Amino acid sequence: MKIASVVGARPNIIKLAPIHKVISTFSDHHIIIHTGQHYDYKLSEIFFKEFDLPKPNFDLNVGSATPGFQIGEMVKKLEKIFLKHNDFDLVLVYGDTNSTFAGALSAIKSGIQIAHVESGLRSFDRRMPEEINRVLTDHLSNYLFASTQTAIKNLKREHVSGKIVYSGDIAVEIINYALRFSSKSLILEDLRLQRKAYVLFTMHRAENTDSHESLISIIRAFETLSEVEIVFPIHPRTANLLNKRNLYSRLEKCKNVKLIQPVNYIDFIKLMQNAKKVITDSGGVQKEAYLLSIPCITIRGNTEWIETVKSGWNVLTDTNTKKIVRATRNWMPTGEQIKPIFGDGNTSTIIKNSIMSLMSYEKVGR
Ligand code: UDP
Description:
The chain folds into two domains: 2-169 and 343-365, Glycogen Phosphorylase B (Rossmann fold, 3-Layer(aba) Sandwich), CATH 3.40.50; 178-330, Rossmann fold. Helix content is 46%, strand content 16%. It has 17 helices and 13 strands. The strands form two sheets. It has a seven-stranded parallel beta sheet with strand order 3-2-1-4-5-6-7, with helices on both faces. A six-stranded parallel beta sheet has the order 10-9-8-11-12-13, with helices on both faces. The chain is globular. Residues 10-11, 14, 95, 202, 204, 233, 262-263, 265, 268, 282-285, 288 line the site of uridine-5'-diphosphate.
C-alpha cells in the first residue's frame, strides 16, 4: 500500500510524527510531501529532527504568498507528483492549513482517496481561513478521523460523503511522548523562569495579526499586566506584521514580556506544563492546555475546541484588553476534572487499523 502524507506547517508536522511511526509498521511506502508553507527552521525542520522523521521525499518550496496563490502553487505541484507516480492508494492530510486543503484537492483531482486526520472541527466562523480549509477538506475526504464526539455530530449534520471514524485526538499521544522527555528540557533554566510564576503567550492567527486594533489591544494588555511575567515564543509571521506596523519596538519595551524564538515541541510542552496560565489564539495550544490542566485564555471570539470552554478550563476573551487583563489576573477554572474528551491516546493505532481494514475492503470490493 502506497500512502502519501502532505504536510507544510508546524501543526501538520507535529501530527504527522506518531502517524508516520504506525504507518511505517505496515507500509514501506510512506511518502512525505512537504509543501514548504512553513520554511523557517524553527517551524519546520526542527520538528523533523526532534521526532526523528525522515527527510521529506518531496519538498515543494512553495513559501509565503497570498492564500489563493499559495494553494494554487501547491495543487499544481502536488498534481504533477500524483500523476507522474500514479500508484498512490491514499493521501493523508492533517488539521486545517492551506497544505491540508491543497493536499485533499490535488488528491481527489488525481483520483486518489483521502483520509483527514483531525476531521469535523468547526468554529462556525467563516472569516477564519482555517474554517474554510476544514469544511472543504472534510467534504472531499473518503475517511474522516474525528477527534471528538462534537466533531462527529458536525460531520453528520453536514452529511459528508466519506466514512466517519471516531479516532480521538492525536495530541494525546504526542503530549504523552513529550512528557516522557520533558524532564530533560532545560528551557526553564535557560530562560530563568520559576515554575508557575509566568504566563505563556502565543499568537499567529490572521484575524489577530492582520488587524492593527488587535495587535494594539494585545500590547496594551501586556503594558497593563506589568506585574506578570509573560513568555512569548513569537511566530515569524507575527513578528513580521508587528514590524510592518511599527509595533515591534513598542512590544520590546514591555519589560515583563520575554520575547523568544519559537521552540521545539518538548521545550514548548515544558513551558506550558509549568506556566500559571496560557494565553493563545492557537487551536492546538488550547487543546494541549486542557490535557495538561493549565488554565487557558483564548484571544478569539470562538473556538473549534468547544469542550474545553464547556469544561471551564478555557475562557474566550477575544483580543479585548480589559477581558484579557481580568482573566489573567482573576479568572481561575472551576476545577472540573479533566475527562478523556480527546480519546485515550490510541489515535494513531485506530487510524492505522482503520486504514488497513478500509483499504483492504475497498480493494476486495473493486
Ligand atoms: N508549538 C511548538 N513550539 C512553539 C509554539 C507552539 O512546538 O514555540 C506547538 C504547540 O505545542 C502545538 C502547535 O505548535 O502543538 C501549534 O501550532 P500553531 O499554533 O502554529 O498552529 P494551530 O494549532 O493554531 O493550527
